[in-house]
Design goal:
By secondary structure, the chain is mainly alpha-helical. The protein has a domain at 216-373. The protein is 88% helix and 0% strand. It has twelve helices and no strands.
Length: 381
């Protein structure tokens, strides 16, 4: 390499840049706590905007569908202007109605199930306390039951409730404050999502323009392409997963009605909603459904679990491949990995968005690999 003045300047810039980067990394490691706190504070400040962006992504799926089918052939300017607001309102009402309907079906039954179990436990304790030592000794584990001081357990519970009453009140106040803050954040996020959805074409053009102007040409074009792939994958995933969830919930309800299993509408709705979470959602719905049925008829709960296992096999091998098809270009192994990692990072929300994110990464890596292979083949030839 010739050490011309131009090359010397390049080498000097590289050395200065590397040294500056090393200094920044060292200072960052020395003050990792302060940096983490600052990042956490910044994240909490912009969280409503992030939630608004997520709301916009989810609402855009049904909204785009209604926009394509409502007054699609009209030539009246007024109807064209009303198409997007009407599609937005229908989408919001539809999602809210689904959530409220499921909550209305599931929560009361869960409360009743816990009441049944609590009443059963209380009745069991009262029965045990009313039995004589001779009667208790004849029961399974009767000797162990004789050694339990039921009055002491009752007194301990009362003392705990008395001592913890102040803590419970303070916790309740704190939860109310958190709820109020959450409602405010939700309102800001919802308004922000409205701005995004009603100006999505303009925002897309502005973002593409900024990326092309301020980033290197190669990276800018790749980033725009990656964003389009991510948008397509997310839209396909939400639409396909929603359709699959409706089919699974309906089949579950019909099967339970045929088998005369109680709580068929509630459990069917619960299975359909939890099926929106890939891989593990059905297990969550099955556990809650079996718990509720167990309080009424343990044998029917066992039948329900067998029926749901069979239905899951049919759904996984026949329904899901046909519904999803090539919508999400991701093998099953990577779907499971994505759901596991996403759930560990962000809970149920992470599970929902992990699959389209992983699918986008998978498609981009596959495209990059194919381009690399083509270049290598051309070079060899």
């Amino acid at each position: 390499m010739d050490f011309t003045p131009q090359n010397k300047r390049k080498i000097t810039k590289w050395i200065i840049g590397i040294a500056a980067a090393c200094i920044v990394i060292f200072l960052g490691l020395q003050n990792i706590g302060t940096i983490t706190g600052a990042l956490s504070k910044c994240l909490s400040l912009i969280m409503p905007l992030i939630l608004g962006f997520v709301f916009a992504l989810i609402l855009n799926v049904p909204m785009s569908f209604f926009e394509k089918h409502i007054w699609s052939k009209t030539k009246k300017n007024l109807l064209k202007k009303l198409r997007r607001p009407l599609s937005f309102v229908i989408s919001v009402v539809l999602i809210v109605a689904i959530v409220v309907g499921v909550v209305w079906l599931v929560i009361p039954e869960l409360v009743d199930a816990f009441k049944v179990i609590a009443d059963g436990v209380i009745n069991f304790i009262d029965t045990i306390r009313g039995m004589s030592e001779e009667e208790l000794s004849k029961l399974p584990l009767g000797n162990q039951l004789l050694n339990i001081d039921w009055d002491k357990i009752k007194d301990s519970i009362q003392v705990w409730l008395k001592n913890e009453s102040g803590t419970i009140v303070n916790t309740a106040v704190g939860k109310i404050s958190t709820l109020v803050g959450g409602i405010f954040d939700f309102f800001v996020a919802f308004v922000f999502s409205i701005y995004i959805l009603f100006g999505k074409e303009k925002l897309k053009k502005q973002a593409s323009r900024l990326i092309r102007v301020w980033f290197p040409k190669g990276f800018g074009e790749w980033f725009i392409h990656a964003s389009n792939v991510a948008s397509t994958n997310f839209r396909n995933f939400v639409s396909g997963q929603s359709l699959e969830a409706v089919i699974l919930g309906t089949l579950c309800m019909i099967g339970m009605l045929i088998l005369r299993i109680p709580y068929a509408p509630m459990v069917g709705a619960l299975i359909g909603v939890t099926a929106l979470i890939p891989v593990v959602g059905a297990f969550i719905g099955a556990a809650v459904g079996a718990f509720v049925i167990l309080t009424v008829n343990p044998f029917k709960a066992f039948i329900f679990l067998i029926f749901l296992v069979i239905l899951q096999q049919l759904e996984g091998n026949i329904i899901y491949p046909r519904v999803m098809g090539s919508r999400v270009n991701l093998p099953g192994m990577w779907i499971l990995a994505a759901v596991t990692i996403g759930g560990g990072i962000a809970g149920p929300v992470g599970m929902l968005i992990a699959v389209p994110v992983a699918s986008t990464v998978y498609v981009l890596i596959r495209e990059a690999t194919e381009n690399r292979e083509n270049k290598l083949q051309k070079g060899e030839n």
